[in-house]
Amino acid sequence: MMTALYIVLAIIALIVLLALIAPKTYNVSRSITVNKPVTEVFDYLKYIKNQDEWSPWKKKDPDMKQEFTGTDATVGFVSRWEGNKDVGTGEQEIIKITENKSVESQLRFYKPWESQSDAYLTTRAVGENATEVVWGFKGVNKMPSNIFFLFFNMDKTVGKDFEEGLNDLKRILESK
C-alpha cells in the first residue's frame, strides 16, 4: 500500500516539476523581403481575406468552410473557419492596425484544442522598392498543458508553415 502511495506521489511531483520547467510562453515568427514598396505590401496584407491566396493552411484544406463578419481590413473584422484535422476550427479577429506598419489579430482556436494567440504581420521599408514582412504569433502556455511543449517544437513545426506562406506571398506580390 505504501509503495503505491510513493509511486503516486512521485508521479505528481514529476508532473509539477515538468510544468514548472516547461516553456510558459511562445513566439514564432519568420520574415522575408518583398521587392515592392511598403505601402503596396501593407495594402495587400491588411485584408485578411487575401490570406486565402498565400496561407499554407488554406492549401491544407482548400474546402474549409469560412465565414466573415465585419469589414475586412478594419478593426473588428472576424474570419471564422472550420476545416479538416490539419486546420481545425477557429477564428481570427483584427484588433489593431497601424497603417504601413502592422496588423495585429487575435487567433482563437477551438478544435483540435482550445487556445488563444496574438498574431501579427509587420512591414518595414528596407529600400525604396523593398519591404521586410514579419509574420508571427505569440501566446502563453498554461500549466500543466505547457508540458507538451517540452516535447513539441512549435517554432520548427509552425515556422515551416510561415516560411512557405511568406514565400508564396512574395511570389504573388512581386508578380503584380
How would you summarize what this structure contains?
It is built from 5 helices and 7 strands. With 176 residues, the chain is α+β, with helices and mostly antiparallel strands. This is SRPBCC family protein.
How would you characterize the overall build of this protein?
It comes from Winogradskyella marincola. InterPro entries: Polyketide_cyclase/dehydratase, START-like_dom_sf. The chain is of the alpha+beta class and 176 residues long. It has a single domain, classed as 2-Layer Sandwich (Alpha-D-Glucose-1,6-Bisphosphate, Chain A, domain 4). Helix content is 33%, strand content 36%. The protein is built from 5 helices and 7 strands; from the N terminus they run H-E-H-H-H-E-E-E-E-E-E-H. It has helices spanning 2-21, 38-45, 51-54, 56-60, 154-174, and strands at 25-34, 65-69, 78-82, 89-98, 102-111, 115-127, 130-140. The protein has a 7-stranded antiparallel β-sheet. The longest helix is centred in the C-terminal third of the chain and has 21 residues, at 154-174. The model has no long low-confidence stretch (mean pLDDT 89).
